[in-house]
Amino acid sequence: MIKRHPEPLLWMLFSAGGVMSGMLMPALLFLFGIAFPLGWLRPPTTEHMWAALANPLVALTMFALCALSLFHWAHRFRHTLYDGLQIKHLEEVIAAICYGGAIAGSAAAAYLLWQFR
Amino acid sequence: MAQAPNYTAYHPRWLRRRVSTYWWLGSWSYFAFVLREASCLFVAWFVVYLLLLVRAVLQGDASYQQFLAWSARPAILLLNITSFLFLVYHAFTFFDAAPRAMVVHIGKTRAPASLIAAGHYLAWALASAVVFWILLGHR
Amino acid sequence: MRDHITLQVARYRPEKESETTFDEYEVPCPKDWVVLDGLNHIKDKLDGTLSYRWSCRMGICGSCGMTVNGEPKLTCATFMADYAPGPLRIEPLRNFPIIRDLIVDLGDFMRKLVSVKPWIVRDHEKPVSEGEYRQTPLELDEYKQFSMCINCMLCYAACPIYGLDPKFIGPAAIALAQRYNLDNRDEGASQRLEVLSEHAGIWGCTFVGECTKVCPKHVDPAGAIQRYKLTAALEEIKTFFMPRGA
Predict the structure, then answer these.
(1) In which domain, by residue range, is C226 found?
(2) Mean pLDDT over all residues of chain A?
(3) Which of C63, C81, C104 is the last residue of a domain?
(4) Is the pLDDT of residue A6 over 60?
(5) In this complex, do C199 and A11 lie within 8 Å of one another by their Cβ atoms?
(6) Do C180 and C70 share a structural domain?
(7) Which ipTM was obtained for this model?
(8) In contact, C95 and C55? CB cutoff 8 Å
(9) In angstroms, what CA-CA distances link B88 with A21, C34, C140?
(10) Maximal C-alpha separation, chain A
C-alpha cells in the first residue's frame, strides 16, 4: 500500500508551470517589461488589451500561465529553502506559505480575469 | 584508550560531518544549480507584474497608462531586465532537461533527446510568435 | 618537469584524534601513475599506517572512490600528472561517515540498495524446460546504460541532497531500480514503486545533476530519476482515477 502524499501531484504542477512559464513568459516579459517601457515598440491601446483579455482562449491561457507558474515557484522555492538553508524544522510552515501563496495568487488571477467576460 | 569514549548510537568513533549551509558555493555546478532554482523567484515576480497589468487594464485607460509609466521607472526596468535574463536561463535549462524525463518511443526505438528538446524550442518559438501577433498585430 | 608530486592525504585515527588531520607525502609522478599508485607508494614505502580501499585498479570494482581536490573520483582512473605540480588533496568520499583515514562506511547505501529489490522479480517463474527468457538487442538497450553501475558511490558523494538529508534513497539505488523496471523480463515494478514513491525516495531529488556529472561509467542516474518521476506521477494519477486497478 503506497502511503499517499501529494508529492507526485505537486511535481506535475511544477513541471507544467515550468513549461508554461518557459514558453510564454520570455516573449511577454520582453514586451511588457523591456520593449514597451523603453519605447522600442508602441504598447497596445487599452481597447486592444480589453479585446484580447475578453477573448476566452486568451483569458484561459493567462489563468493557466499565472496559476501554474505560481505552483512552479512554490514547489521549487520550498525545496530550495529546505535544501539550501536547511530549515527542516519549519517544513510545514514553509509548505503552507509556498502552496498557500500559489493558491491565493491563482484565486486573484481567476478573479481579475473573470471581470473581462 | 586515554579516556572514556563519548558514545553515540553505535559506532561512536565514526566521524560524521555536517554539510555547510554554504555548500552551494563549493563549485560552479552547484552555484549554477542554485541560480536555476532562484529563477523561480523571478517567475513569481512576473506573475505579480502580469496581474498588476491586468488589474490596471481593468480599471480603465488612465490606470493602464499609469502602469506603463510605472513600468518605465529605472528600478522596475532593472528588475524586469534581470527577470528576463533569469527567465531565459530557466527556459533553456527546463527545455534541455525535459528529454531526460520524457522518453518517447517511435515504434521500438527511442527518439533521440535532441529531438524532444528541439520540439520544445519549436513550441517556444511558436508560442512567442502568437504572443507577438496578439499584442502587436493589426493595429 | 617535476618528477615528484606532493600528496596531502586526510588522516583520521579514531583511537587518538576526534577530527581529520592532513599528512603530506612526496611521491614519484611518472606520467602513467594514477592517484592509487601514489597511495600504494605511500603505503609500501613511506607510511604503512595509511588505510584505504582498492581492488581491481581498473575502474570496475568501485572500491577506490575518494575526494580528489574536492571532486569525487575513482583514484584508479585519475592521473596524478594532470594535477602537477600539485599539491594533490586526497580526502575520503563525502557524505559518508569516516571509519578511518580514507575509508568510509557504505552500510546506508547497502541497505537502501536491497530495499529497491535489484534483481529480476517475477510473478511466475518459467520452468527450465520452457527455455530462457529472450530479449532483443533493442529491449536490452532500454536498460543497458543503468546496468553499468559499479556501486562506486561517487554519485552519493556528489549529491547535495544526500548530504543534507541522509534519508534520501540516492542516485545509484534509483538507477539500479530503473535497470530492473525497464528490463522486459522483470515484473516487479509495482513492488519497487512502493519504496521509491516515498518522500525520501525519488521525490527528494531536485535534479541538481551532479550525480550524472561524476559517474565514471556514464550511467546517468539523474536521467533515470527524472524518467521515473514521470512514470511514478502517471501511476499515481492512474490509481487516483482507477483505484481498483488499471
Answers:
(1) 107-241
(2) 90
(3) C104
(4) yes
(5) no
(6) no
(7) 0.92
(8) no
(9) 10, 42, 38
(10) 60
DSSP letter at A86 equals -
Domain boundaries, chain B: 22-101, 103-139
Q: Which residues pair with B23 in a beta bridge?
A: none
C116 and C131 housed in the same domain: yes
The H-assigned helical ranges of C159-220 are 160-164, 171-181, 189-196, 210-214
Q: Which residue of A has its CA nearest to C230?
A: A12
Beta-bridge partner residues of C72: C67
Tell me the average pLDDT of chain C: 92
Query: C-alpha distances in angstroms, C122 versus C17, C112, C134, C175, C187?
Result: 51, 21, 14, 20, 5
Give the largest CA-CA distance in chain B: 88
- How far is Cα C112 from Cα C107, in angstroms, rounded to an integer? 9
> What does the pLDDT look like over C22-46, one tens digit per residue?
999 999 999 999 999 999 999 999 9
For C237, name the nearest residue in chain A, comparing CA atoms only: A9
CATH number for domain A10-38+45-114, candidates 3.30.1020.10, 1.10.620.20, 3.40.50.720, 1.20.1300.10:
1.20.1300.10
- Beta carbons of C115 and C157 less than 8 angstroms apart: no
Burial of C62 (0-12, 13-18, 19+ CB in 10 A): buried
Distance between CA atoms of residues C65 and C72, nearest Å = 7
Q: Give the minimum alpha-carbon distance from C206 to chain B in angstroms, rounded to a whole number.
A: 9
Query: Is residue B22 classed as helix, strand or coil in its secondary structure?
Result: coil
Q: Which amino acid is at A70?
A: L
Counting as low any pLDDT under 70, the low residues of chain C are 1-2, 244-246
pLDDT at site C245: 54
A window 12-51, beta carbon within 8 A of B: 15, 17-19, 21-34, 36-38, 41-46, 48-50
Tens-digit pLDDT profile for residues C60-75: 999 999 999 999 999 9
- State how far the Cα of C5 lies from the Cα of A10, in Å rounded to an integer: 51
Whether domain B22-101 has CATH 1.20.1300.10: yes
The whole-angstrom separation of Cα A4 and Cα C94 is 33
Sign of CA dihedral C229, C232, C235, C236: negative
The secondary element (H helix, E strand) that includes residue C10 is strand C4-11
Residue in A29, A34, A80 closest to B37 by CB: A80
Mutation site for C-interface testing, chosen from A83, A85, A88 by largest number of C Cβ within 10 Å: A83
Handedness of CA B36, B38, B44, B48 (dihedral sign): negative
Summarize pLDDT for C168-195 with one digit per residue, the tens. Answer: 999 999 999 999 999 999 999 999 998 8
Same domain, C234 and C127: yes
Residue C22, beta-bridge partner list = C10
- Confidence band for A3, pLDDT divided at 50, 70 and 90: low
What whole-number distance in Å separates Cα of residue B13 and Cα of residue B36? 39
